[in-house]
Amino acid sequence: MKKLLTERDVDALFKMGSKSINVTKDVLITSLALDRAKSLGLNIEYGIQYKKESSTKNTSDAWVFTKVAIGSDHTGFSAKLEVIKYLSSIGVMCTDVGCISEESCDYPDFAILVSQKVLRKEVDAGIILDATGIPSCITSNKFRGIRSATCYNEFSALSARSHNNSNIICLGAKTLGIETIKSILKVWLSTSFEGGRHQKRLDKITAIEK
Prior knowledge:
It is a single chain. The chain is 44% helix and 18% strand. It has nine helices and nine strands. The chain has helices spanning 7-15, 31-39, 48-53, 77-89, 107-119, 134-140, 154-162, 178-190, 197-209, and strands at 3-5, 20-23, 27-29, 43-46, 67-72, 93-96, 125-130, 148-150, 168-172. Strands 6-5-7-9-8 form a five-stranded parallel β-sheet, sandwiched between helices. The chain is globular. It starts with a strand and ends with a helix.
């Protein structure tokens, strides 16, 4: 059973003078704890198991994706504005497909628009925000050629790219803090697909689509 690392644990480590938190595969850090750690200036260090998995991560300043389509429903609207500002600051171009306010709307409409732009190769990849990231992920994966992933931490983002070659990421604006969202996107945007045995598995998914 995995150990759960919470905000209270982070506060305790901070009071003890810790400058970093080591996270291994037997530790599950909550989104709120991750945000708390970042706000306190604590570095998140992934253990040996994670480092082995992340050895192919692109650590250069160049992003794998430099032009993205981004969309959200009303629950993700505020976070989307913050994400666009962040991506612009790191040199990633954004095409915003909506929504345009916090007025209630339907998440499939914007998941569809992002997916279409990715499939038409108008952008390199897509980002969608709703309350949990799940419904937009379900919607976008209905399109042949879309590999959409709901990511909830940096490791899931790393795996979604390096193993699954995802071209759309879905994030929960109500389940993740904005700093966590930024750190997830930084990993996702800078991680290359490993190919090899992973491509063979993706080919089986493509066969299902056909």
